[in-house]
Write a structure and sequence with these properties.
The structure holds 2 protein chains of 2 kinds. Chain A is of the alpha+beta class. In chain A, 19% of the residues lie in helices and 44% in strands. Chain A has one domain: CheA-289, Domain 4 (OB fold (Dihydrolipoamide Acetyltransferase, E2P), Beta Barrel). Chain A is built from 5 helices and 11 strands. By secondary structure, chain B is of the alpha+beta class. Helix content of chain B is 50%, strand content 20%. In chain B, α1 crosses α16. The radius of gyration of chain B is 35 Å and the shape is flat. The two termini of chain B are 62 Å apart. Classes of the chains: A alpha+beta, B alpha+beta.
Chain lengths: 174, 727
């Protein structure tokens, strides 16, 4: 045991920051590619058997039955004020757990297609531009460089802020 | 602070006991002759003190001890049961409860608490005549014993008790610790000498670390009576070998003790000497005598027992009585098991899943059309239904316990107000879900206090009106079409319609021109910031409360209603769903979606005739003639903004809730099924008209409609429209 510990080079906090490689799930919305930190993702399921909830904002597509639990499904494209997605063979629901005041909530996010899991070094992530990305700045965690192209890495807790979503859902009805 | 499990149990049990004590005290106040109740109170105090000793909670022991001494006098008839005594003990109960709270929080009482502590002890000491610590307070029984035996020639010299303890092997396993007993003994007297007996300890290989092999020979100096000393060991009496010899016992008794523990005989004699219980001469004499007895009398034990009985019949009787009580309480305990509420919730969740899975299986069996398969699944669903019912019944508790808590509230508040108010309780056996019970207690307290403060008039006002001088407050509960109704009624002045209206106009809640029905006016008292009491009293009148009451009740999917007759009284009815988790549902279809309404509310289903539909489209006449009755209806298609044309044949589901009937127009009637309500979750928490989700046999999700809320929204809308028209 002691040998093992000695064998490891001492890590300074600085070194940790530079060397961290994290995994991201990339997916397609319309013609754009986005990425999500894989740690947020619980599972990915095929689209199917969605029940609509009446009088909801467009981005809340409805609810599905995930092995006995009722999970709300959010249309990511509509959440970005883009035309809501068409259902195709490739449409998937990414199941994500988000924290909110007073607990956590499991939600499904509808995306047009799921691509792959990629590794991005923290050195290859640029801060979000203040404008020009065409979606709200607080939705963006950073711009990841993959094969020389920029991919928007989403800030899940802001995109799926349950307090905001609940407030929007409530306001439509009243 | 992490409390260990047994302390947690102690806290729960003590609170229960204090509750029982309070109930017994209140009964006693009405009926001072009730010996049963006095005993119950004594037992409660005694158990709390005894168990406190196990955990070394000295502040509880020292306080409860004084209270117990007074209770003992009450029990013996030395102190009569008076109103003051009851009032004092109600305070004592509250205070012990506070001490228990300290234990629960893991804190020790602060200075303020100790002031109360000393105050109460002083008041209790008044009944004891003299401070407890002096020898004058020595219990009568032990004095007799002592003086009686001293005269006998065989009595040994020492003035200490001798206690011989052999703990049973299961002591640790039952959560007991021998050390805590010794520690507790020190609170009632002084341990002069302890000799630890380790002979039972096996060799290391054979030893079980969880078993207790210890024994103690203790020389104990105490003024306590034998019963009191015995009571120290109440918790371990069953599996332990305990011998208690009073001071100056006859040598014969020691011999007897040595005989009974004969496998340790050689040593025991020496230990007794070491303890100072026997002098060496006494031991010698004893051993000689033992030899004599062994040859002459074959049954020394029986003999001694008889002797003992002759000497201390009171002690033996008391012991027998005690044993009987312990047995009795054990019998009634064995009928109950304490379960963690979370485990129960888990079970009910699983039963919920089972129901959904069962419905899925039935659906598939139906499709297959296999007779045997159908029969099997229908058998299973019958059983599942029973399992569901009994699982739910586990959560159901009678409302009686909640109601009886109000005896105290009514008593205290009526004293405070100087009004004579009597509480009448009925329907205690009505059952409802535990979570509902817990949450209803606060709103009920508000209503009860309100009725007593504002509703019931003072005796001077009542008598000229021809009413009895005492006011009556009634709590009643009953089941009514799938919900439970709880009524708080008083025979006071009733709500003052004009005063409420004037106040509401004054506060800007309504405009002066609005014409309102009596009911609407009464409901104004639930508006935030509304209060009609001219003077703000300690109890109510601050204008917070009624709106909180209403919100709390709505949070439980319930409603509250007022009936008031001026001069005769007022009744508040709270209507709550029986359970929050599983319901019998009625499935209906609108457009492509399925919705569930609670079956208990469905009265009947009728077809919406073509002409009625036409008139609803052309003239917006959303009501039909139901056998001479006007039945307003809501079209779910419109409510939910469904796209597409309605089918040619539409149906009306007639729903009833709280004496109001409405119709829901749906496309399809699918049928009844049991369903588990899944909570809305964060996203949909503000959505009105939907009570939850449920999963159908097919695996798809259906929405459960919150019919009462929909009715309310519809009513509000029509009031709004009316206001628009009028303005």
């Amino acid at each position: 045991m002691s040998e093992l510990i000695v064998a490891q080079p001492p890590r300074t906090p600085q070194a940790v920051k530079e060397n961290v490689i994290q995994q991201y799930l990339t997916f397609v919305l319309g013609r754009e590619i986005f990425a999500l930190n894989i740690l947020n993702v619980k599972e990915i399921i095929e689209y199917g058997q969605l029940t609509e909830v009446p009088k909801m904002p467009v981005f809340i597509r409805g609810v599905i039955n995930l092995r006995g639990a009722v999970v709300p499904v959010i249309d990511m494209a509509a959440r970005f004020d883009k035309p809501s997605a068409q259902i195709t063979r490739k449409t998937c629901i990414v199941i994500i757990e988000v924290a909110h005041t007073g607990g956590t909530q499991v939600v499904g996010v509808m995306v047009d297609a799921v691509n792959e899991v990629v590794e991005i070094e923290s050195g290859n992530i640029e801060p979000a531009p203040s404008f020009g990305a065409n979606i709200r700045a607080d939705f963006i965690e950073g711009m990841g460089k993959i094969d020389g192209k920029f991919v928007i890495i989403l800030n899940v807790n802001n995109v799926l802020s349950m307090d905001e979503v609940a407030a929007l859902a409530g306001s439509i009805v009243q | 602070m992490q409390l260990d499990e047994s302390l947690q149990i102690y806290i729960i049990e003590s609170r229960d006991l204090l509750q029982q004590m309070e109930e017994a005290l209140l009964t006693l106040e009405q009926n001072p002759e009730d010996e049963e109740k006095i005993n119950a109170i004594f037992r409660a105090a005694h158990t709390i003190k005894g168990s406190a000793g196990l955990f070394g909670l000295d502040f509880i022991i020292s306080f409860t001890h004084v209270a117990e001494s007074v209770l003992d006098k009450v029990r013996n008839g030395q102190v009569p049961v008076t109103e003051e005594i009851v009032a004092l003990f109600l305070e004592v109960g509250d205070f012990i409860c506070k001490l228990i709270d300290h234990v629960a929080e893991g804190t020790t009482p602060d200075a303020d608490t100790m002031v109360v502590n000393d105050g109460l002890i002083n008041r209790l000491n008044v009944y004891l005549g003299a401070p407890r610590a002096t020898a004058a307070a020595l219990p009568v029984a032990s004095q007799n014993e002592a003086s009686g035996v001293v005269e006998s020639l065989d009595g040994v010299e020492t003035s200490c008790w001798h206690i011989s303890l052999r703990f049973g092997p299961d002591t640790f396993r039952s959560g007991m610790d021998p050390f805590s007993f010794l520690r507790y003994m020190n609170t009632m007297g002084k341990i002069v000498h302890v000799a630890t007996i380790t002979q039972a300890l096996p060799s290391l290989e054979e030893m079980d670390a969880e078993s207790c092999y210890l024994g103690f020979e203790i020389s104990y100096e105490s003024q306590a009576s034998k019963v009191e000393i015995e009571s120290i060991f109440d918790f371990v009496r069953d599996d332990c070998d305990i011998h208690i010899l009073p001071p100056h016992s006859q040598v014969q008794h020691y011999i007897d003790l040595i005989d009974r523990l004969s496998n340790e005989e050689m040593k025991l004699g020496e230990i007794l000497v070491k303890c100072g219980t026997l002098t060496p001469t006494e031991l010698e004499a004893a051993l000689v005598q033992q030899a004599d007895v062994a040859t002459v009398d074959k049954q020394p034990i029986g003999q001694t027992l008889i002797n003992a009985q002759l000497v201390q019949p009171a002690v033996v009787n008391a012991a027998l009585e005690k044993q009987r009580q312990v047995k009795e309480s054990k019998n009634s305990e064995s009928n109950y098991i304490r379960i963690d509420a979370n485990k129960l919730d888990e079970l009910i969740n699983l039963v919920g899943e089972l129901i959904i899975a069962g419905a899925g299986a039935t659906l598939i069996a139906d499709k297959l059309g296999d007779g045997a398969m159908n029969e099997a699944t229908s058998n299973i669903s019958t059983l599942v239904e029973q399992v569901r019912d009994s699982a739910l019944a586990l959560r159901m508790v009678q409302i009686g316990a909640t109601f009886s808590r109000f005896n105290r509230v009514v008593r205290d508040v009526s004293k405070e107000l100087g009004k004579d108010i009597r509480l009448e309780i009925s329907g205690e056996e009505t059952e409802l879900d535990k979570t509902v019970v817990e949450k209803i207690s606060d709103p009920l307290t508000h209503l009860v206090r309100n009725s007593m403060d504002h509703g019931i008039e003072s005796a001077e006002v009542r008598v000229p009106k021809g009413k009895p001088a005492y006011g009556t407050l009634k709590l009643n509960a009953f089941h009514d079409s799938g919900s439970i109704v709880i009524e708080v009624s008083d025979d006071g002045a009733g709500l003052n319609r004009d005063k409420i209206l004037a106040k509401a106009i004054d506060k800007g809640l309504v405009s002066a021109e609005q014409s309102l029905s009596d009911k609407e006016i009464y409901n104004l008292i639930f508006e935030a910031g509304f209060s009609t009491a001219d003077a703000v009293s300690n109890l109510s009148g601050r204008g917070v409360g009624m709106d909180v009451v209403k919100r709390n009740i709505q949070a439980l999917r319930g409603t509250i209603d007022i009936q008031s007759t001026p001069g005769l009284g007022c009744t508040m009815s709270i209507r709550l769903p029986l359970t929050l988790a599983i319901i019998d549902g009625f499935l209906v279809g609108v457009a492509d979606s399925s919705y569930v309404v609670p079956l208990d509310m469905v009265v009947e289903c009728i077809e919406l005739s073509a002409e009625d539909y036409a008139s609803s489209v052309s003239d917006k006449r959303n009501f039909i003639n139901l056998r001479g009755e006007v039945l307003p209806y809501l079209k779910l298609r419109d409510e939910f903004e469904c796209k597409g044309e309605p089918p040619i044949r539409q149906n009306i589901v007639v729903m009833q809730y709280a004496n109001q009937k409405i119709g829901l127009v749906v496309d399809k009637l699918i049928g009844e099924f049991q369903t588990v309500i899944k909570p809305l979750g964060k996203v949909f928490e503000h959505v009105k008209g939907i009570g939850g989700f449920t999963i159908l046999g097919s695996g798809s999700v259906a929405l459960v409609l919150d019919v009462p809320r929909m009715m309310q929204l519809a009513n509000m809308e029509s009031i709004k429209e009316q206001a628009l028209v009028e303005s």
